[in-house]
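We modelled the chain as a single entity of 508 amino acids. Its sequence is:
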Amino acid sequence: MAILGNLIKGVIELKDTFSSEIVHKDAQESVLKLLLETAKNTQFGKHYDFESLLERSNLQASFAQTVPYFDYNKINAEWWYKYHENESDVTWPGHPSYFALSSGTTGKTSKRIPVTDAMIEAIRKAGIKQVFALKNFDLPADFFEKEIMMLGSSTDLDENNNHLEGEISGISASQIPSWFRGYYKPGEEISQIEDWDQRVQRIAERAKDWDIGALSGIPSWIELMLQKVIDYHKLNHIHEIWPNLQVYTSGGVAFAPYEKSFKALLGKPVTVIDTYLASEGYLATQVRPETDAMQLNTDNGIYFEFVPFKPEYIDEDGSLKPEAPALTLEEVETDQDYVLLISTVSGAWRYLIGDTIEFTNVERAEIKITGRTKFFLNTVGSQLSVNKMDAAMRELETQFKTTFPEYTICAKRGDDGEFYHFWYLGSDLQNPQEDEIAEALDQSLKAANKNYKVARSKALKGVKVKVIPAERFHDWSERNKKKGGQVKMERVMNDTKFSEWETFINEH
């Protein structure tokens, strides 16, 4: 009998009995007030006069009118660089204990994003919320006695002056409480291995020693790890070695593009729970099985704003135009893409995180990630967002009986001087009929997007497709020193980056 499991499940259910339902719009007002009150004596707070802001009748509107938009480059150039010159109280009281390294999709030198003790606590509380939400998924008591495989970046953080640096998944894993360490796999020793391939090799070697009930990590790297374990032990599927695997907690990117290829590695269905952990904070988690949408963590150290994702508000580099309007949670609606802005207990202010989302349920504050601002393709008016591209991939998977978990696209002139969309698709198809795939992709996008259909009748000449092994995309990430990390593969590339990509593909 699963005595410990029943005890843990009972505590989770009892906690929920005494919990009140969050009124998300009210929670957001309280969070903003707390953020401004805490940071009013920082350099940033004094510059934008948070003291006066706190006396205004409409705090949210006044905040939006007073503080400009920031992306990483802007806030780092104007404020965060001071932390590296040993200044304190810059955008948040004190000095950050950690900096999360994130190269995003650029492959350039890592961004250094402050992670304060207050953010570590906020991430911890969000993790507890996720655990308590498991009661909604009707899992058996013995599930709570199984081990959890958390696959992220190395927990061996680098010391740099008076702080530690690493990717957010490594920082979070390094903070695992002592009571949880018995459940946590692959364990501290393996998690500290810096080299991704070596770490996964050790996981494969030890896999038979563990009784894994849940997986947590970015889909593409979880798939590679599972495939390594399957190959190493000569299995048909992962459930032959981990028969009690019941839950996969996805994070970092939308799970939908990987769903078909992920399921192919399983022997039976598992419960998939989406989460939204970024370098800047733990933003949202799925709390109920009736939907795959995630609930924003509205009461936990992050204030959210939402800019309608429309071409007139977005610059070519994916940044926001200063005049773009920002809405509060009370003002948003469903079925509209929004650029996400956050202000946090790590001292990010009206910060463009780079993701776009849509609301599926405003009252519950439930969202889905729909893409990246830099991945919006509007050459010759085609107005393609990542969610439209992802949907087209799902149609192609059905039509051609394969998987397309990875892809990238560039809009540029062909040899004839006309504009084309050049696609590279990752698949294990043998002898793919690329012309047929291109035609099917073109038709799918025409049906899903009227702007694309208009563009195809005018300046956009056509679609060209090359199918390559999905592993080439992983190799590209590895070349950019991002293998196994918080990776968001470039779905849309400019001419320069695409030229580098094609050179890389043709060399290998």
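As a brief sanity check on the tokenised model: The two ends are 54 Å apart (CA to CA). Residues 306 and 331 are 9 Å apart (CA to CA).
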